[in-house]
């Protein structure tokens, strides 16, 4: 009986949600929103050829600062929740070390790792010119470290370095924001205060490119930190003599 | 460029949170001191801004130089300014209370202050932002920092509470995001003022769906029944100052988001009935549950939910008097509940199960802390001459104005329940013989200062309510007058 009521209620809710979504036509020109302005202003005023980047870093840069903070929080809070189970900071996990990955995997990882890092760096450095940007580049770099963590079981990541990278990148973002508040024409937080440069050049777009590089470093360091924390937790109860 | 700008409420705590790990490497005590300076500065600028704000005016802060509705903007008006003032002041008081926090060690106190910093930044962001997606981002920041803080004391119970909170919170975020998504497909903008204008052309059924999604999403943070299952666990497992800040900041940010959306964006009268019913249910169920609690922290948590229910009732009246009463209640609840949590933290510091029955005779053993708790109990049930009296009185008159006599009777009845369970503790504190062996932990001087400041505030506002009634009534005007909000954010748009 209880289940029946729940199912009926869910169906009613689902029906109304469905009917709302069905009424939204796909791809049609319906709403005179802000998009035309964004498409026009990104190349003209900001000198950023990737409009998505312009939206993410400039028009909605405040959201991006928030999202970077959310990621930072996730890595901090995860460390706080999983803290007790890690007995020492080297993060070595005997169970994980016991398995040796094959030579093929290790050699492959060695060849691929620098290329992955290079690709990640390329993606976030060119965030204002080509598709991609700080978040994507950072995630690519983190996959490189994941590959190494999987192939070399005794490899461990120095959390001190991660902390420094994270802190400096985050600080750069906020300080550029405050820089806009102090130096820019209208004294707004996150406003561009550097010369815009020429469209499509690597050095263009003022603060947009710099912010995205900071985001790239921060995201890369944070996701790597999260992966490392997750991989190196000792399963509770595996080593009874360890308490 | 002026020093007092609302952008600092968000930029500074974020900067500090990013920098704290580095600061700790330079000189360890700075980890505990820096947040204090930042909170003190934030409290200072919030006083400066609030006292210089003209009535009925709003300060619009553009981000990155894009005027609304193109970019994100912050709206500092009489209402959001007032709530910001409460949050920043409480943040500083909680810091004064907890800055010694020695027993957890260096690494953990670093995490504590980072998470605390971001909880404050997120709560203020929710209150100040004028952009609906930005609101979501700040809700996320508050939520994730709360999960981390709930699980702060390691152990099974803390982890369970945090996971419960995490699951409910994730549901809340999903619903909010879905609501924002539908809203964007219908209006093509994320600016709250512009959405308010464009919603006129959206079908009522769609509006109702969106509003219900928001209602549930914010209801979780505002501790609304039946979405408040996380509250007792989180409040009882988190460290004392964290529970205090949940009551003072997290719940306030949640209810603020809810009423901002109901009053400023939407124009659906039906929602007030729903809010009224949910408020009454929340109040009745929470307060009767509080009566049965044996653990003092859980009791305070249920009492906190009950108060949130009362705030919802007052907001649901949809009159100026109702909003006035609700904001007054928010103010009192933030101050008094913080004081109760802080003093309860020391009362039960050395007891194992934090049970109420462990507190027999503590009025003689810990006279100062017991007195503070007693003051808080008197104030929260609404006895004169404390500030709680005036807010309860204004709720009752606002309900009576609407001629909802059944609700009036319910609130009075529930107040009796509240008196019973608070006075039961006071009875134990002062009129029972102490147990044979009691271990106590004397509050440090900084904790005593923090609690005294709150107590003085409560008594002063209780005796001279006129000190703040003008500000509260301005805040109520700011929330009630939707067209003024739109006009301030979008000065060039005509409303017709």
Structure, described:
The complex is a heterodimer of chains A (about 240) and B (about 500). With about 240 residues, chain A is mostly helical. Helix content of chain A is about 65%, strand content about 0%. The N and C termini of chain A lie far apart (about 50 Å). The model of chain B has no long low-confidence stretch (mean pLDDT about 90). With about 500 residues, chain B is mainly α. The longest helix of chain B has about 30 residues, at about 155-185. Chain B has helices spanning about 10-25, 30-50, 80-100, 105-130, 130-150, 155-185, 190-200, 205-220, 230-235, 240-265, 270-290, 295-315, 320-345, 360-365, 365-380, 385-400, 405-430, 445-465, 465-480, 480-490, and strands spanning about 60, 75. At the A-B interface, helix 1, helix 2, helix 4 and helix 8 of A face helix 1, helix 4, helix 5, helix 6 and helix 8 of B.
Mean pLDDT of chain B: 88
Main sheet characteristics of chain B: 2 strands, antiparallel
Strand content of chain A: under 5%
Radius of gyration of chain A: 23 Å
Residue share in β-strands of chain B: under 5%
Number of domains of chain A: 1
* Continuous helix count of chain B: 20
Supply the helix-strand structural class of chain A: mainly alpha
Number of continuous helical runs of chain A: 9
Which regions of chain B contain 5 or more consecutive residues with pLDDT less than 50? none
List low-pLDDT spans of chain A.
86-90, 235-243
Q: How many β-strands of chain A, per DSSP?
A: 0
Report the span from N to C terminus of chain B: 36 Å
């Amino acid at each position: 009986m209880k289940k029946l009521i729940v199912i009926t209620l869910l169906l009613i809710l689902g029906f109304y949600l469905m009917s709302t979504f069905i009424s939204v036509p796909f791809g049609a020109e319906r709403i005179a929103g802000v998009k035309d302005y964004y498409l026009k202003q990104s190349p003209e005023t900001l000198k950023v050829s990737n409009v998505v980047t312009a939206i993410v870093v400039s028009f909605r840069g405040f959201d991006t600062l928030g999202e970077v903070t959310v990621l930072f929080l996730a890595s901090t809070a995860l460390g706080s929740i999983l803290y007790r189970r890690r007995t020492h900071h080297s993060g070595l996990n005997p169970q994980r070390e016991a398995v040796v990955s094959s030579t093929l995997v290790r050699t492959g990882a060695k060849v691929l790792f620098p290329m992955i890092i290079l690709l990640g760096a390329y993606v976030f450095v060119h965030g204002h010119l080509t598709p991609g940007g700080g978040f994507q580049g950072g995630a690519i770099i983190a996959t490189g470290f994941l590959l190494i963590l999987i192939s070399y079981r005794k490899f461990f990541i120095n959390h001190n370095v991660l902390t420094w990278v994270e802190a400096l990148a985050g600080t750069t973002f906020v300080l550029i924001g405050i820089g806009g508040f102090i130096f820019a024409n209208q004294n707004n937080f996150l406003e561009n205060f550097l010369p815009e440069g020429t469209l499509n050049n690597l050095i263009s777009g003022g603060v947009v490119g710099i912010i995205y590089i900071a985001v790239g470093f921060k995201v890369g360091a944070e996701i790597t930190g999260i992966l490392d924390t997750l991989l190196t937790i000792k399963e509770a109860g595996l080593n009874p003599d360890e308490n | 460029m002026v020093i007092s700008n609302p952008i600092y409420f968000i930029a500074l705590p974020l900067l500090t949170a990013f920098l704290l790990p580095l600061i700790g490497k330079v000189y360890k005590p700075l980890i505990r001191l820096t947040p204090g300076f930042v909170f003190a500065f934030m409290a200072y600028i919030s006083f400066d801004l609030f006292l210089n704000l003209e009535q009925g005016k709003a300060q619009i802060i553009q981000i990155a130089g894009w005027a609304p509705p193109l970019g994100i903007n912050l709206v500092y008006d009489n209402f959001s300014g007032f709530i910001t003032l409460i949050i920043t002041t409480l943040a500083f008081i909680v810091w004064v209370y907890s800055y010694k926090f020695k027993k957890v060690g260096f690494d953990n106190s670093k995490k504590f202050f980072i998470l605390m910093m971001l909880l404050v930044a997120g709560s203020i962001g929710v209150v100040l932002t004028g952009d609906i997606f930005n609101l979501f981002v700040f809700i996320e920041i508050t939520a994730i920092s709360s999960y981390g803080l709930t699980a702060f004391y390691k152990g099974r119970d803390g982890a369970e509470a945090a996971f419960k909170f995490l699951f409910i919170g994730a549901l809340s975020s999903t619903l909010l995001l879905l609501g924002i998504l539908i809203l964007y497909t219908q209006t093509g903008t994320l600016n709250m003022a512009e959405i308010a204008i464009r919603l006129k052309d959206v079908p009522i059924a769609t509006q109702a769906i969106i509003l219900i999604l928001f209602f549930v999403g914010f209801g979780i943070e505002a501790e609304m029944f039946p979405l408040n299952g996380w509250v007792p666990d989180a409040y009882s497992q988190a460290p004392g100052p964290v529970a205090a800040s949940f009551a003072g900041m997290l719940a306030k940010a949640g209810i603020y988001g809810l009423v901002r959306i109901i009053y400023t964006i939407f124009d659906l009268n039906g929602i007030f009935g729903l809010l009224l019913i949910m408020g009454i249910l929340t109040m009745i169920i929470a307060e009767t549950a509080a009566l049965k609690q044996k653990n003092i922290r859980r009791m305070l948590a249920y009492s906190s939910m009950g108060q949130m229910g009362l705030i919802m009732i007052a907001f649901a009246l949809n009159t100026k008097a109702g909003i006035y009463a609700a904001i007054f209640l928010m103010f009192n609840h933030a101050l008094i509940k913080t004081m109760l949590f802080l003093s309860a933290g020391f009362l039960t510091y050395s007891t194992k199960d934090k049970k109420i029955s462990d507190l027999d005779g503590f009025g003689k053993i810990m006279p100062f802390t017991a007195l503070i708790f007693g003051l808080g109990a008197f104030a929260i049930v609404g006895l004169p001459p404390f500030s709680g009296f005036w807010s309860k009185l204004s709720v009752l008159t606002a309900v009576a104005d609407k001629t909802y006599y059944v609700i009036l009777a319910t609130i009075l009845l529930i107040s009796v329940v509240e008196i019973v369970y608070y006075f039961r503790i006071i009875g134990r504190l002062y009129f029972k013989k102490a147990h044979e062996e009691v271990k106590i932990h004397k509050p440090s001087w900084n904790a005593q200062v923090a609690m005294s400041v709150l107590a003085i505030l409560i008594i002063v506002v209780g005796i001279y309510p006129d000190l703040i009634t003008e500000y509260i009534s301005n805040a109520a005007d700011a929330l009630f007058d939707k067209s003024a909000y739109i006009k301030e954010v979008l000065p060039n748009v005509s409303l017709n």
